[in-house]
Amino acid sequence: MERKTIAVVGLGLIGGSLAMALRGFEDYQIVGVARRRETVDYANVHGVGDTATTEVKEVLSRADVTWLCLPPQGILDFLAAYLGDFKPGSLVTDVCGVKTAIVDGAKRLPPSVDFIGCHPMAGKEVSGIAHAEGSLFRNAHFIITPQPGNTTEHLELMKRMGEYMGFRDVVTATPEQHDAIIAYTSQVMHVMAAAVCDDPDLFDCKGFEGGSFRDCTRVAALDVPLWTELFSLNAPALCRVIQTLENNLRAYREAIECGDREALAAKLEHSASRKRQMNLEGPPRGDSYKPEG
Amino acid sequence: MERKTIAVVGLGLIGGSLAMALRGFEDYQIVGVARRRETVDYANVHGVGDTATTEVKEVLSRADVTWLCLPPQGILDFLAAYLGDFKPGSLVTDVCGVKTAIVDGAKRLPPSVDFIGCHPMAGKEVSGIAHAEGSLFRNAHFIITPQPGNTTEHLELMKRMGEYMGFRDVVTATPEQHDAIIAYTSQVMHVMAAAVCDDPDLFDCKGFEGGSFRDCTRVAALDVPLWTELFSLNAPALCRVIQTLENNLRAYREAIECGDREALAAKLEHSASRKRQMNLEGPPRGDSYKPEG
Description:
The structure is a homodimer of 293-residue chains. The first copy, chain A, has helices spanning 13-21, 37-46, 56-62, 72-81, 100-106, 152-164, 175-197, 211-217, 224-232, 235-257, 261-278, and strands spanning 4-9, 28-33, 51-53, 65-68, 91-94, 114-120, 141-145, 169-172. By secondary structure, chain A is α/β, with parallel strands linked by helices. In chain A, strand 2 (28-33), helix 2 (37-46) and strand 3 form a beta-alpha-beta unit. In chain A, helix 4 packs parallel to helix 5 and helix 7 (175-197) packs across helix 10 (235-257).
């Protein structure tokens, strides 16, 4: 009996890590696809997937599942270029951090191809296949954005792949919900980190930075083409979140300026208790002196 | 020959960690001082310092070095209450995250007592002696804010203590410089984390948060009384930094709103290259696809 095939198109950090994390999944063979010969060679030497190739069309024609692990515009362009090349009855999915634009782009696929948008919420500050690792997705969220036409079989397959790769959970949302929330939980964090680095004091602060500064600015050295696309493809939702943050910062500034310590304490208690309620990998509440202040 | 004495007043997370980190320093005996009997008992049982006591005045009268490890207002109140009780010729220092107000408060000490302000830039999201550890200061900055009257002997002693406790470096600044920079590198990070948690979408975002969100909001569950004091004692500098951040965020919002991808990319490249130049525990520059987007 022939083994079924999962194609992973694009072997950067995410695609490479997916190809590693999926090895051994059920009875599937994992085939990496990259444009550059040296990436394919690296993949074959380092076990990124079971095998790798530059032959896109040949792989698409026999892949039961195709993961598109390219930058956002790259996924849209790939879908347009290879519309008719996916295997009929197959599942196509992606890893893009915005979903409405991608799911819209996938609507042009033939009806026999089932597209389920996906956003594996994991990453590193470095990119490229050399940094790929099969454990990248442990404890991360696996978000899928199903559409009315998706088959139950493919939805179940997505979940099994997510579980196999070690994700913490499988989260379902509409593409629009996803994009609105991700503007808040991810995109504005990157805008903020960038905005902090625009402060004229940046280069005077060496020797004075602590954990909070390192943590917040960590993502500022971002992949510019990628994030330009992500922000642009989600501009209205992102701009709303930035505006809310500007307002909330101004409210803090005014509370600090007016010098009413009780009012400031009440405001901080409000925010801090919201954070504690969220209970993300969070601190238990302490009761006495606390730094880094 | 009698051993010299270092008193650590206040055995919370920072004081407790200092008392542990200083054990074995030269020929000094480390004496912890706390108000509550149970804190003293805990310290004696767990080796937080060489010994601990509630007898403040007795310890101050013989301490060659006194570390004030209390909240900001607590340090000011302690200095006022025990002005005449420090050993003549001794060194007094502190751990407060703002320095101008503390150094001003210390100006009322008798001329025979030498005060050198200090800010050990380390911490955790939890507080209290039970979380103290001698390794807390490894790789952190040890900031001191000397004044014209300080003796060379005491300045050298501060540096030796900082090195002994495992700090990465000893950084010198005026109290005013310290407060201006810390408003940027630490205080505004905490304001930002709190402001992010004020977003009405906070509780909808479970399942969609990634590393950047966890890292940025980590410090939002802050110790409210402590940070109310820190922000209030540094209000003008902090408000200037918040205003700059509001402006920088608005500039990003406008760049995203206007839809000019090239202009947005140039702006992101500007911020990202500044971050890379800073080179804090930082990412090498990647060259292809990168998440968590």
